[in-house]
């Protein structure tokens, strides 16, 4: 009986082995193999001999100096009597033009406070900057001013004056910002 059992066991093992090896290939059908396509880098093309060559010219140094202050020059010419019609006199008149600040009324600042101790002013500025304000110090002779701004929106700064009064306890003053003479 052992021989029948052994032959059945061997037969079962063979059938299972064939099933494990052959059946997956039969059931999968035709396999699709994917092949990656590579694009080759083209070789550097040879350039034609008619390549344009540009010559770099050195800059010319002029001995002309700019005037110290803005000056308007006007030329007046007058012709004297008919006897001297061929002779023209040319007079150059120099007029100093006052400097104008075109942005004089375009921005505003809040002058918050003036402190004698510069360290205290810097601490106030750091605290205001942490809270999101654009705060600065301006050193004067014996004191340091705390300034918020500049900003082009006057209404925004007016609202900030009220907020800053709650934060610092001092009422700020809204002033026009003069960028050339702060």
UniProtKB/TrEMBL annotation:
Residues 102-177 form the SPOR domain. It comes from the Bacteria. PANTHER family: CELL DIVISION PROTEIN DEDD (PTHR38687:SF1), CELL DIVISION PROTEIN DEDD-RELATED (PTHR38687). This is SPOR domain-containing protein.
């Amino acid at each position: 009986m052992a021989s029948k059992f052994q032959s059945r066991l061997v037969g079962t093992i063979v059938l299972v082995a064939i099933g494990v090896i052959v059946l997956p290939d039969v059931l999968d059908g035709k396999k699709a193999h994917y092949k990656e396509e590579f694009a080759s880098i083209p070789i550097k093309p040879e350039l034609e001999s008619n390549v344009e060559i540009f010559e770099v010219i050195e800059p010319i140094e002029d001995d002309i100096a700019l005037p110290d202050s803005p000056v308007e020059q006007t030329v007046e010419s007058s012709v004297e009597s008919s006897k001297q019609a061929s002779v023209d006199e040319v007079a150059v008149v120099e007029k100093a033009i006052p400097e104008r600040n075109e942005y004089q009324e375009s921005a505003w600042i809040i002058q918050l406070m003036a402190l004698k101790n510069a360290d205290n002013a810097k601490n106030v500025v750091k605290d205001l900057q942490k809270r999101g304000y654009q705060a600065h110090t301006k050193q004067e002779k014996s004191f340091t001013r705390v300034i918020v701004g500049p900003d082009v929106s006057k209404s925004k700064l007016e609202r900030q004056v009220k907020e800053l009064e709650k934060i610092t306890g001092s009422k700020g003053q809204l002033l026009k910002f003069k960028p050339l003479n702060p």
